[in-house]
Amino acid sequence: MALIDLINGGLDVQGIVDNLIYVQREPIRRLEKQTKDWQNKISAYQAFNTRLLAFKTAVESLLYKGEDAPLSLPATFEDRLRRSLFALRKATSSDETVLTAAAGKGMATGVFTVTVSSLARTDTYASNNFASSTATRTRTGTLVIQRGSDDPITITIDETNNTLQGIRNAINAADAGFTASILNDGSTAPFRLVIASDDSGTANALTITNNLNQGDGQALALTQTIAAADAALQINGVDIVSSSNTVTGAIEGVTLQLKAATGSATVTIERDLDAIVEGLKDFAAKYNDVVSYIASQFRYDAAKKEAGILSGDYTLREAQSRLSAALSRRIESDDASLVVLAQIGLKIGRDGTLSVDESRLKQSLSSDFRGTAHVLLADALDDGGNTISIAPALYNQLRSLTDTLEGPVFRAQDAIQQNIRRVNKQIEQMEQRLEVQRDLLILQFSRADQALKQLSVLQNSLASQISTLQALK
Asked: Which of 26, 33, 338, 415 is 20 to 30 Å from the Cα of 91, by its Cα?
């Protein structure tokens, strides 16, 4: 009876084949899991590399605050000091109605007396009045305008642009160091064309030749309203001339913004210890991000019986060793009294992280500024003649670790990528073979199903004959 029921039910060809193929896909599933694990490893390496790059940026900021890193490191401590975070200065003015002061990087410190006797002015010309800036027509011809020693620029005015607005647009289209605008002075014929040099100072004065003398339009007369002039000031009794009211370079690393035509102010320039401390705190924080990430990968969770996906990884151990060795260097030279980071308030803990004792760091910067900088930037050499400075050594190690062609992090990711490509090719070939196998199984079980359906016809005939025989009894 069970046979007859099986025959009546037929075969679930698709279900049977799917189950058989599922079993045969087990090797592929193992390979897919392997590639997923590898992809997770790549993501972990990328996260690690991101932290290395952030630390590299912090080291670059320490070495070259606000500048692009050069192809090669400055050779001496003095050269490094001038470009580094330690060169940051702050400037204050005793009277900001006379001038303001801002400091970037420089070696100058002290108090400077600044006396302003005149401000720089921008050469400016204005036209006569016009009733309309768009409807009133001017005469045609050319305007030849020269700024300082620049080449003269010829502006052609014809019937297509002989209005104040047209002349303004033609001048500005030249983009030649001077700018035109239209002012409304509120009179009955209020519109005036104004032409001004883009920069102040006598070196940027304008020379305008007005050849608008053709046609019957209104004449355009240009009159100088402001004559170009240089700023004049004294710094500690030394005469200074500047074409701009923004005076740079007179005091190294300091920008003076002149506000009043006359007056005096005292400018105090000092080391920006707060900015230096903040920079070193960022340096420590970015280093700790790297150390903490490595620790998280190597940490074993006994409850879950799990470790980081890069647990025990050689690349991470290599990076940890190289950075730790660079950071824990002892800098010794004839003129150095401070030789290790701990002496200036930067301490490496038992867990490998770097802590910053702000009060000790500020005290060290105040009492021995050059010695403090020397610990990080020193130009001491090892027996092989190689620099053993902490920050430059860290920078070199980070540049090597994050190199996108030969760096160990890149090589580790590239090796995994090659494995993934190899296994994906293998999976592709196995899937192709399974598709062929699937087609063969479907064919075989479909034939079996057809045979069972033919048996079903015999079953019905046999059942009918049995019923007839039973009725005759």
From this structure: 338
